[in-house]
């Protein structure tokens, strides 16, 4: 979020849309690759919708073309898009991967989550303990 705010303050909206579109292409392609890998590694799990593998493979071919063309035509925009994605890696390690966090860090994460929910009106906040209610 911080990198996006900086880009919004410095750059124009067209550039920001280019960053986001590259990120979207990348995420869609990784999702389709995950679908193909799951179909190959775990063929017996339940799937509510099952399509012929020709469809995701064809999509992947077009995706590869779009991604390579984007990297070739606008490498700086794609690089900044990758940097925006990589800003989430430390957040993942601090918030999800690190299991034995000190209580003060857990309290900080919970309060930030509660504050964000209140700010964005996303979910009814469940801050504090049940004793306060």
UniProtKB/TrEMBL annotation:
Q: Does the keyword Membrane apply?
A: yes
Read off the lineage from the record: Eukaryota, Metazoa, Chordata, Craniata, Vertebrata
- Which keywords belong to this entry? Membrane, Transmembrane, Transmembrane helix
Q: Can you supply a Gene Ontology BP term from the record?
A: D-serine transmembrane transport
Entry superkingdom: Eukaryota
The answer to keyword Methyltransferase applying to this record is no
Q: Which GO terms describe its molecular function?
A: L-amino acid transmembrane transporter activity; neutral L-amino acid transmembrane transporter activity
Name the source organism: Loxia curvirostra (Red crossbill)
Q: Which residues cross the membrane?
A: 16-39, 51-73, 79-98
The protein here is known as AAA1 protein
Q: Which InterPro entries match?
A: AminoAcid_Transporter
